[in-house]
Amino acid sequence: MKVRLYGVPGSHPARCAELMLRHKEIPYTRTDLPNMTSRYILRLMGYGVSTVPVMRLDGRRVTTTRGIARALDAARPEPPLFAGDRAEIERAEAWADDELQDGVRQLARWAVKHDREAMATFVDGARMGVPVGLLKRALPAIRPTVTLQLKVGDATARACAEAIPGQIDRVDALLAEGTIGGRRPNAADFQVATSVRLMLTFDQLRRPIAAHPAGEHALRLCPDYPGRFRAILPEEWIRF
């Protein structure tokens, strides 16, 4: 089986796909595309989508984390990504792939514009064909172009930040119900854990979230996530 995974540095959906590949013990090659311009590259590559992750699986193009989960189960059924109550797993997976994933993405995009040091921390471990040190030295020149495309206003970012406590409560409930957090992780586990893990890169959110079962779950499944946002969130946005 030949697998090439495409993502961008710091992408939580791409990390979700990577964790599923590791879970299946499927060897793969990862290539990171430049942030924001990746949408144009993906279309030139014939994927017909504007977001990562995408994957080449034995020559076949696969898109989205949900599509990748199903393609991996078809290619290698064991261990399954939908063992147990599939309907419950798919409901949790869909919520995490939509509301949970996008809320923290929007907050992170806002934060990149307000924390000048953050971008460099998210390229650690990037696989873009150039040494990470060289990539970091180029960031001051690249940053203005990238941040110009990060069109997330204060009102949107605040709404996303204020929604996080409720989202963490829902993850805690999914763990208590046994929909996620079992002995063998399922597709929803990886969808949820990677979004919560991105939340944990915020200095002001790390301690309150880590105190929840949701935080422990994210750190257990995804211990090696790169990146850090310093204390740039207005205190009134934090509702823990």
SSE layout and pairing:
Layout: E1 3-7, H1 12-24, E2 29-32, H2 38-44, E3 54-57, E4 60-63, H3 65-75, H4 86-114, H5 118-122, H6 132-148, H7 154-177, H8 187-199, H9 203-210, H10 213-221
Parallel strand pairs: 1-2
Antiparallel strand pairs: 1-3, 3-4
List keywords for this structure.
2 domains; 10 helices; Glutaredoxin; 240 residues; Glutathione S-transferase Yfyf (Class Pi), Chain A, domain 2; single chain; alpha+beta
Helix fraction bin: 55-70%
Number of discrete helical segments? 10
Question: Sheet bearing the most strands, described?
Answer: 4 strands, mixed
Q: Terminal Cα separation, in Å?
A: 45 Å
Strand order of the largest sheet: 2-1-3-4
Decide which structural class fits the backbone: alpha+beta
Tally of DSSP β-strands: 4
Low-confidence stretches: none
